[in-house]
Amino acid sequence: MRLHHIGVVVKDIERSRKIYEKILGLRLLRRGPEDPFQKVKALFLGVGWGEGIVLELLEPTDETSPILSFLKRGGGIHHLCFEVEDIDRTLEEIKGRGGRVVCEPLPAVGFDNRRIAFIFPVDSILVELLERK
Amino acid sequence: MRLHHIGVVVKDIERSRKIYEKILGLRLLRRGPEDPFQKVKALFLGVGWGEGIVLELLEPTDETSPILSFLKRGGGIHHLCFEVEDIDRTLEEIKGRGGRVVCEPLPAVGFDNRRIAFIFPVDSILVELLERK
Question: Are A77 and B125 inside 8 Å of each other by CB?
């Protein structure tokens, strides 16, 4: 398991991208396709160098987006995403240790069309799991 | 510049540590000394493996702690810390690009007694800089 990205909810991903690029020197890695399930658009910024940690900027595209209420409370860092080798096995382990899964993994909805799942906040942190390619 | 740690404000660092250890399998790296300036105690958890990203759990120790108001609003992820080679040079660069420094580097107050500085939130994220050893 390794930290893969930090999800940040913002009002306007392009406006925020320019700020992160300018002030901190982050670099645009890619723009994600709009996600019709989560009703978000996303882009990915490289944070520093040498280890591939990514900042994922997320913008709600619809009044029904599940991240809209978070944005209305101010937005900001929304979740931490950990990359795992085998998402089914990791979910079983986490459930066995008392973690609760928000939704079972769905195909082709996460970063890079890989399988993802969310764990109900661990202490205060919403955790996403992303299966390695 | 590389992501060094994610600062998380919690009510009780030992209680939260146990949750992160149990559910996510994070490991305790060290407990920090109590910080008389920031009025916090801290501990550091290893996140995943192989790249040394750290979760810094922070607990206010006093009613005058600058992180208390953040805790009262719910706590959670508070800042991102980037490790830099030369903190003075990086601060000059960031100021030249429009960033604003909360406090200039202070000796021996950050992680591992290294020099730190804070940058006013970049978009929505409070940024700490930590000088490499």
Answer: yes
Joined tokens for residue A67: 């991240």
- Which residue in the set B49, B97, B119 is minimally distant from A22, CB to CB? B97
From the CA of A80, how many Å to the nearest CA of chain B?
10
Question: pLDDT-derived band of residue A89, with 50, 70 and 90 as boundaries?
Answer: very high
Q: Which chain A residue shows the shortest CA-CA distance from B17?
A: A123
Which amino acid would we find at residue B1? M
| CA gap B41, B38 in Å, rounded | 9
Does residue A42 contact residue A52 with C-beta atoms inside 8 Å? no
Tokens of A118: 């969310």
- Mean of pLDDT values over A97-116: 78
Integer Cα distance of B113 and A129 in angstroms: 33
How do the domains of chain B map onto residue ranges? 2-131
- pLDDT score recorded for residue A126: 93
Tens digits of residue pLDDT in A55-72: 999 999 999 998 999 999
Residue owning tokens 């995403």: A81
Which class does domain B2-131 fall in? Answer: alpha beta
pLDDT single digits (tens) A3-44: 899 999 999 999 999 999 999 989 999 998 888 878 999 999
Q: Do A123 and B19 touch (CB under 8 A)?
A: yes
Separation of alpha carbons A85 and B61, rounded Å: 39
b/e map B1-39, b = 16+ CB within 10 Å: bbbbbbbbbbeebeebbebbeebbbbeebeebeeeeebb
B-contacting residues of A 56-95, CB under 8 Å?
74-77, 80, 82, 94
Do residue A10 and residue B124 have CB atoms under 8 angstroms apart?
yes
